[in-house]
Sequence to fold (442 residues):
Amino acid sequence: MASAPAQTFSRWGYSGALVAALSGACAASPAMRAAERGDHAALRDAIASRERGGTLSNGDAASLAREVADRELRSAPPAEASDRIRDALACAHELDDALADRMRVHDAAGADAALARIEGRGLSLGDARVFVGDFDSRWRAVGVRALVRPDDRALRLRALVDDDPFVRRQAARAARDAADAADLGPLGEAARLDPQPIVRTEAVRALAALPPSPSGQTADLLRDLWTGGDDGLREDIALAWAAPSIWDAGGKEALRVLVASGRGPGAIEAAAAVLRHGDASTESAQAAIGQLARSIDTGPRLTRLQALAQSPLDRGDLLAAVQKAASDDDLDVRVGALSRLAGAGSGPTRAPAVAALEALAQPGGAVAQRARFALASARDRRVQAWIEGDLSAAAPEERLGAATSLAMMGVPARAAPLLADASAAVRVRAACTIVMAARSER
Fold:
């Protein structure tokens, strides 16, 4: 399948010369040769040697990471291929060649590769359309994702009630891109009745992308959906009410009522959305501040953590609530609050918050991992050695968390040992973390 012209993706900031320069920087090195062979033991030794000599730059690590992930995608056994593609979604753009090769196999993993290429801008919607009539529902979903043209509406709505949830999800995503006001009713039905939560979520997101309805129909429909929705769907509904197309057409009023009397994750999302709107009324803003402050102070743990993460610290009452939570008996809540304060630029709250997090980040502490992540977010290099120690943790999630922390600190090359990890999932996900760090530096 031909890729779209390179100029289509210039906004990614990648040129052929730049990618070639990165790839060639360590092409002849023992580490790169080991990566090309898939020799994890040799790669591990070569990376360790480069790290001891201080010669493994972020750019070199990104080249190795790209080669490792590319090889993993090409060599994954059929039973694991879809898992590896999902592991690589975040850096699908950089891995488009490998995904294009995998797409040539007409199976479920090949269809997953095609969808990953669409998201990575390697496969155009025009090229994906050829699969809309495929006998395999996974491949039909690829074609359905491309039904965004005005004359595609009948096919798109038919796909929205297809027997296969993969097809229905891609139909909802296509409806989001098509932004056809006539899809309001069918999308509302999908958001209300589809048995798959992910399809309901995609339908609500598509509703948020529709053109404004002067009569407030979209906002009213979302209000009806709120009544029967679970916490996850309610969060998406709150975000939809705050969307530019709905805010002035009933969304503003719906959020005002919600933040004044609602509770739970949806109400917290609503409060944060109100405070992001500069034209929110004073009444709504004060209700939103009260909603978040109460949630920080008295909600269950997950609610408190969500409110801490969502609260803007330029609001005095919320800053006070976060500062109070920074000494809470619940250590998870305490870390959540300290993380916000430590990330608050160079304000007076930063230094004491960083010091408190460093104490909690000590090896063996109950919340050491979370505290280290918070310090990495604040780019505090003093915990780098502890974070690097987590690269050898027993739990894959902890190893990957360390890679993310090192990338946030600006030293993704220090996560390179995970490119030779015993787990293929860790190798690919760590590789994507390193590649994405290189992307953000350009």
The two ends are 29 Å apart (CA to CA). Residues 1-25 have pLDDT under 50 and may be disordered. The longest helix spans residues 58-75. The CA atoms of residues 87 and 429 lie 5 Å apart.
